[in-house]
Records
---
Amino acid sequence: MSEAALSSAESQSLHRIAGMMIPASAEYDIPGADDRLIFADIVGSFGRDLGDVRTALAALSTLAGGSFADLDEARAASLLEQFLASGSTSTSVLGRVILQCYYRDDRVLRSLGLESRPPFPKGHTLEQGDWSLLDAVRARPKLWRDDRKVLR
Amino acid sequence: MSRNGMVDVLIIGSGASGAAVAWSLAETRMRILCLEQGDWMKHADFPSNGHDWEARRYGDFDISPNRRARATDYPINDDASPMKIANFNGVGGGTIFYTAHFPRMHPSDFRVRSLDGVADDWPVDYWTLEPFFAENDRMMGVSGLAGDPGVPSRNPPMPPIPLGKTGMIYARAMNRLGWHWWPSDTTVATTEYDGRAACINVGHCTPGCAQGAKASTDITYWPRALRAGVELRTRCRVREITTNEHGMASGAVYYDADGMERFQPAEVVILACNGIGTPRLLLNSASARFPNGLANSSGLVGRNLMLHPWPQVTGYVEDKVDGSRGPMTCMWSKEFYETDPSRGFVRGYTLQFARGTGPVNEAVTSVAAGRLPWGMDHHRVYRQLLDHRLQIGIACEDLPEEHNGVTLDPVLKDDHGIPAPRIDYTISENTRRMMEHGIARAEQILTEAGASNLYASRTVLNSPGHLLGTARMGNDPERSVVNAWGRCHDVKNLFIVDGSIWVTSGGVNPTSTIQALALYVADSMKQRLATLFD
Ligand SMILES: Cc1cc2nc3c(=O)[nH]c(=O)nc-3n(C[C@H](O)[C@H](O)[C@H](O)COP(=O)(O)OP(=O)(O)OC[C@H]3O[C@@H](n4cnc5c(N)ncnc54)[C@H](O)[C@@H]3O)c2cc1C
């Protein structure tokens, strides 16, 4: 539904930006944010962010003086840097929309040593730790002011 | 407008304080009704049930009502405040969303004028509230450890949340510095408790606990209050409190789930709508009899808003730590809580030590802070951040100032056409100095813990949802809205029990004290039933 809301020019620009912002890495054996599955998740998840995403893409094509997707690599890289430095709300929303889909992809999570699952119902384990570390604190005199004594 | 049958007590708002007061009054066998604008929450709908668990905190589980924009929310104009408003509207109120850090105010917090020469003393003291703190700890189910020299003696019914890897790193650093620390009191159940399951370290405590280990009042006070005969009606948004020819509250006009306007008559009305919802309702209840808003002869309804500026300092260690695999809440330090004039400010703060965060939130906050680049280097840097984070929050006390407050926005309205609140708030010079002091101490701790890449976020992202002070307590009707036991000076059958009655804010998360006060007001009412309106 959201994909239909982007024109094909917008969609192509977004695809290019996503791959530049988070590129694939052979070193870590992970896809980029322009990977087919991740990109499909991104365009399917705009929800209430669609307006900001479109504003950001419009700002980018204004900077590019046309389609961002058609720019050569050097020009695209320098414009993207300029665009990201703008610090506008719509730019940070665009970044978040990409990140929130990228960092829930099974392959990406596995490469980070994380299980790809929601936190509930399995939960996690948390080690007790060494409570004897508190001994030093237990030995301290009280720190709080007792109004009954101070104001007597 | 249709008119319902009379009730003895009408409570408006079912959050932290509304639930406590409902439960406590239930034993009187009066006819008690609570109207709540939100819904019952289904724990299966909480974000941690799904793969999009982190994304939803930027959507239908955002802490800002403006962003969340559920039908059960009302908009708040907070453009004129550096701190944005966080809340939740539903059965349980803010406790659905709170992080369950559960310190009490200190005895000195109730005596700020006498001890430190600022603001005003409260008309109640810690020792009067102490039995109600203990009762509330039992009802909510508190986990913690007795013996803390930083706070008065108390006996949490469950053991503390484990220290974990992250806690051990903090603890060692604090011991080397010789500074106080202690495992935090929290309302996360560490064992089975009163029908609640124990925490399994889902780790995403704030936007609702799917396990039900976190004590929100929909699963603590409310089931008991309902069994004792209290009625709770959801999706009922109150527009105004009405009064009769004797200047007493006569009931409330509200919109029901179908949008129908209804009148609910009542002998006694209790407001529990929080430090923004309550002044909003009182101001919206202006009438020929009360032209400046209800219970507002002092002119203080909506004034003295306190929000707890809450800087956070983040750093990253080489070892992997707990990340989001456990409750955020870990431990506190009271080293800088009590006033020390040599620090250059009065009053003080709690240091709140947190665990890390999930993969999406780590990326989003790190990009925003400028420590995570886009492009080829993104992956290398990200691997140094995720699960390496330490984070210390600085819970600063902001003092009451009349120019900080809640008024009615002249333009903005909710879905029912009811004027929305507008927030005007600035951070005082005393608070700024306190914040900088806390940031410097937090940086010292993180450095001692071996962290680098330190980053201090001062306010914008950190609004803690503490809404206090806008209908303050006091003995003088010219300087306060309610008396020492929560009854409005101007309207003798109208009570307020939520965070708006606070006189000062302390340097702690407020819910434990809000609820203890609500139980104390309920108890005061029960003691005086025959003479309640004298
Ligand atoms: C993200 C977040 C994290 C937090 N973390 C902590 C923490 O760790 N520790 C802590 O102590 N506190 C924390 N808090 C604060 C805590 O939630 C509040 O202090 C507490 O819930 C306030 O209690 P209350 O009774 O004053 O109001 P609330 O709990 O806010 O309840 C008010 C209720 O009134 C209802 N209401 C308002 N207006 C109307 C109306 N006109 N008609 C009908 N119903 C109405 C609302 O829908 C709401 O349910 C946090 C809050 C947030 C948002």
Note: Chain B has a mean pLDDT of 97.
---
Amino acid sequence: MIESPHETGYNFAYLDEQTKRMIRRAIMKAIAIPGYQVPFAAREMPMPHGWGTGGVQLTAALLGPEDVLKVIDQGADDTTNAVSIRQFFQKTAGIATTTRTDEASIIQTRHRIPEMPLKAGQILVYQVPIPEPLRFLEPRETETRKMHALEEYGLMHVKLYEDIARHGYIATTYAYPVRVEGRYVMDPSPIPKFDNPKMQMSPALQLFGAGREKRIYAIAPHTRVASLDFDDHPFKINRFDRPCALCGGEGVYLDEVLMDDRGQRMFVCSDTSYCESRRAMGHGPVDASAEPAR
Amino acid sequence: MNAPNRPELSQDTELPLMQVRGLTRYFGARPGCIDVSFDVFAGEVLAIVGESGSGKSTLLSLISAQLKPDQGAVHYQMRDGVNRNVLELNEAEQRLLMRTDWGFVHQDPAMGLRMGISAGANIGERLMAIGARHYGDIRSAAQSWLTCVEIEPDRIDDLPKAFSGGMRQRLQFARNLVTQPRLIFMDEPTGGLDVSVQARLLDLLRELAANLGLAVIIVTHDLGVARILSHRILVMRRGRVIEQGLTDQVLDDPQEPYTQLLVSSILQA
Ligand SMILES: Nc1ncnc2c1ncn2[C@@H]1O[C@H](COP(=O)(O)OP(=O)(O)OP(=O)(O)O)[C@@H](O)[C@H]1O
Ligand SMILES: [Mg+2]
């Protein structure tokens, strides 16, 4: 039995050992059937559901004393949500935390996959609000379960069809549905579709937890993850037409930030840790008036 | 009464498309359907008539594998020519049959359509369900089926909500026909529509059935609809088929007292 290193009165990582075992069993099943939503007896956590209690429970069940935890929210380590979850586990498990992607053994995330490619042995834990990708067109749970069981996924393309009919292109940019290992269709949580290709054949383990809906699903390492599309409207990710205004990074996901109350804006890396490490390495803004690169 | 210009049945159809044998289903002590047997041939329109509660919808649910019978069999000539008891197909096979070689048109369009998505997607759904992955092809198929059911193709992106009652039924036809099924089930497809709309819909239905060689099993309590549309007719009462035969013969010269009553009441109407 693991002792809590801090005298908080909580069990290590808050959840009792029996609950953690139950969650680990669900995780094992989820890994064995990639993309399949495994029901689990989600517990109430001492935080609102909007904070990602599904992800928090996964992390609690996974953490060991040697783990190093990183928590991001929209790519940032310093939002209230990310800071609170990190502090929660510092307090209840006494584990080390980091903001660096390459240092972390477990990364809990809301809405992004880090820019730095993940490695074997790392675990990415996604916070999921709505796990069922078919719900948009079929609200009945009995029916959506049957559709998964029988691989009846035509409805997903109906949704994409509607997108194209309305906008002329597939306008879905977040929670873009994927087919996992040629079998289950899965909602990758509200990450931008920009991040979808990072799921494909990732050496890291990817776990998804939906607290309110009590579902866990997984993408095992080195698993095929294909974004759904049409032959004549293939999946495309949005490329940004400029580099990050702070680190000059290209081919990364950018957030628009308001600079002042006169509407001055700039585009910067959404992955704050990536941006900082680039700047620490000496990268800076790319000046349009063409100073040669250092 | 003038003989309506129903499509002629081709004579070279030997084996029935569907053979229903001894279908029985009780709801507790109440009979839904008792020992019903009949055949349907390719291209044939069969009407099931009878008063309210006589078991018409129950029979339709049974033969379309949506309701399990207590007894009986429904043999169907699959597209590959193999004869199978559809009640013994597994659920995946039944559902595949229902969205490829069969169709179902409901009285209430909200049951047969997805009201929240466009007409084009309603039609394209079956194609996508069986693997169509080319948007342009799906869209042009939807357009041509809209034309076939006399809906302006430029309504393709409208929601069914924006359609009239008659248009919604025609959209249901198109949505079902897109996979070129050989058999369509219909439960009171013209019910609740006013007379002129109903007449136009029946015309269209008759043309489609003839041109496409469709077999149709249509439930109606309206003998007028049965006369216009069907080659053969089954008269149901209290769950049993009490009389069946060629539509003109049954309606012009009913043998059973109950059928005589039904026919006379329509003549009064
Ligand atoms: N799900 C059910 N549970 C219990 N009884 C049922 C059920 N469905 C039908 N019945 C009964 O079975 C009998 C036949 O009903 P059915 O709906 O088949 O009649 P119908 O001929 O279609 O009538 P209508 O013209 O009014 O639609 C009725 O007595 C009905 O009450
Ligand atoms: Mg009925």
Note: Residues 289-294 of chain A have pLDDT under 50 and may be disordered.
